[in-house]
Design a protein that fits this description.
Chain A has helices at residues 6-12, 25-33, 56-60, 73-76, 142-161, 165-171, 181-197, 227-239, 285-293, 338-356, 391-405, 409-425, 440-448; strands at 16-21, 39-45, 49-51, 70-72, 83-87, 90-94, 99-104, 107-112, 115-118, 122-124, 173-177, 211-215, 243-245, 248-253, 257-262, 265-270, 273-276, 280-282, 303-304, 310-311, 314-319, 324-325, 371-374, 380-384, 387-390. By secondary structure, chain A is of the alpha/beta class. In chain A, a hairpin with a 2-residue loop joins strand 15 (257-262) and strand 16 (265-270).
Chain lengths: 449, 449
Amino acid sequence: MATSQQAASEKSENSHRVVVVGGGFGGLNVAQYLRRVAVHVTLIDRRNFHLFQPLLYQVATGELSPANIAAPLRSVLERQKNCVVLMGEVTGFDVGSEKVLVDSTHGSEEIPFDTLVVAAGATHSYFGHGEWARHAPGLKTIEDATEIRRRLLTAFELAERETHADQRRMLLNFVIVGGGPTGVELAGAIADIAQFVLRHEFHRINPAEAQVILVEAGERILSTFPPDLSANAQSTLERLGVSVRTQSLVTEVAEDHVTVIAGGRTEQIPTRTVIWAAGVAASPLAKKLADATGATLDRAGRISVEKDLSLAGHPNIFVIGDMANCSHDGGKPLPGVAPVAIQQGRFVAKLIRAQVEGRTLPTFRYRDLGNLATIGRSAAVADFGRVKFKGLIAWVLWLLIHLMNIVNYRSRVLVFVQWAWNYLTHDRSARLITGSEARRAVDEFKHAD
Amino acid sequence: MATSQQAASEKSENSHRVVVVGGGFGGLNVAQYLRRVAVHVTLIDRRNFHLFQPLLYQVATGELSPANIAAPLRSVLERQKNCVVLMGEVTGFDVGSEKVLVDSTHGSEEIPFDTLVVAAGATHSYFGHGEWARHAPGLKTIEDATEIRRRLLTAFELAERETHADQRRMLLNFVIVGGGPTGVELAGAIADIAQFVLRHEFHRINPAEAQVILVEAGERILSTFPPDLSANAQSTLERLGVSVRTQSLVTEVAEDHVTVIAGGRTEQIPTRTVIWAAGVAASPLAKKLADATGATLDRAGRISVEKDLSLAGHPNIFVIGDMANCSHDGGKPLPGVAPVAIQQGRFVAKLIRAQVEGRTLPTFRYRDLGNLATIGRSAAVADFGRVKFKGLIAWVLWLLIHLMNIVNYRSRVLVFVQWAWNYLTHDRSARLITGSEARRAVDEFKHAD
């Protein structure tokens, strides 16, 4: 084992060493809010960029390019003198000797910490059905998004060349599992593409005949919104041609169909394109950290944190964002959304500053800034507690808020230009079928046939 | 076998059927220039987009996103009523019954033609050393570009974490094989990144210490340019810190080194990042077409064409672009550059129009509009025959000409914004390490260690 964090330790010698695992909304905010604090920060991520996940579905639907929503971490933190970025995979934690273990070319590298913040996010959960992953990719990474884009666009191309009517029908069925914001946004965007973008581009098929089916196990879609906004979202989707099936349970995802049970009736929906927007589980790092600290995990694999976001018995170890089970005011755990992670990151940074300066800080309180979800072109729902919006106003709010929150200026300009263009021309220029396995779907389909 | 080109034949019933294989510069120009001609066009490509290859190196170096230089073929040809786009892989030609065979989900699909234009382009050639491909990717596709981008950026990340000095040195050696325009442009762009873009982003390494080595077998780089421009390009590169090695022959490409022979001396250059910009061979479809028609292939696998770009004995079959060996005025074959393919595409479209209207057309003549190559930031060489430019003027010309030639307006705006930003900020925001095998290099390196 090599202890090679030389430069970092050189620079930090006497200063408090903060190690942040994960460069998402939570981790990045910890690092940035420690900018003027007398600590030395090491930010570790296995990717070289921060990903603006709320717009990932727009990469999956060809509206934006991956680089528009991904900011290189080194570039974002370039001017922050007290922060070192380390690209690598965290493999474990040595809590006793206060070290993070990172995968290295020479075995394992040990990064010592005085304070540790773990913000490694979440991944998909197929509720024990890992075999569904192959047929129903989720949407968490850039690669997930370009893979979904490939499947969506390939389905239309295959349908155009398909001679058997039932096969063509199957290719034009798109099933989205999960009626949360991601599922709703995907369903709306796919319906948009089929209705408007591809309308005049094919010759044998009419893309508008594509059927988008949104399957939700619960009573209503967007269950974290007030019931009237859920109803509005559902009717907006239905006007776009989306078939919304609530209280419908997916019991099987196969190569050429999805099985759904609703009201005791079992239905097989023939399809070759399924997107998984249903289950989320904490990063496997949560389990490793729990094993090392004795912390408890909830059903989604999240770590239960104290009121100051630290772990019980480990006041210098914090868990934030999608990995944390943070029961706000004793109620349900806070949702896995960006505002929670951002506020938690800023809180932990302030707490570290307070500790370094010998002060104390009250416990973390989440300030609910509201909930937004967009539904295709020109429609959205927005819930700000006392005030609610739907339709065009909510959509404009959604656009502005997302645009303002993109990390760097250039991306803001590029995203704005593309949104304006997409809106005016009904086009999506980033709809490329790419990937080293770009032809896999075609081949698989052929072999299955 | 299914003959399912129903919609196409419905629309074409009595009209002349033109089948174009390949949606690159050549094929796309054939289709577009037949817009107002009473023929029915089927454009077949295995990808769903037209690629602006001259800017591909900017995707490889993180300056632009793939979608900025790729225009969906269906979108480009959406309003052209007499043209059908078919996404599929051409597997062969039945010249006797005038049919093109296309890979289909039900075996093979046969597309009948009255006139056939084959413009399937070129691929890399490793001069019989296919085993080098793994260590030295070429630059022809979007996937090539993102793979090279991954390797370049990963090398800096691994160097930052490397504790052994010689390993770090090896990781910061970048070898480009081939001193044509692509090699020169890549070398300049990589030197730019190392010198300016990454300068303040790392802590243990100084990216400016990266060594870019351009290896050229011939006497000078940019051999198609006048000698004084070659000399200027070489000195410009050297000022950027690039080591230019002419009359140097690569005899081996391995995982951790390249062997070069120059002046009888053999040298091993330790490196983990090699880019192949040396050899080009025609698409394997050239061989299939030659077998079907009795045409002859040259050493690079290109098909020799008549003065009207048709095949001897097959006046209704044309080959254009990088796949064609077109000896202009009896001299050397025309180079594999976009202007040749574009002019040939337009010529064939005019010829088809003339034939349909019962006229004849003189033979193809290439009008040499000049040669351009850019060399990093603010420098280029331009050769317009009587007039030559170098330095900043040539660079501005290069920018304008490339910007004007990008197929769609939106990409022009997006490329312009990014170029301006990159120039002013010394940044490259599209430098993402992505790909389902994004961690492969790290793993390989580790296992080799």
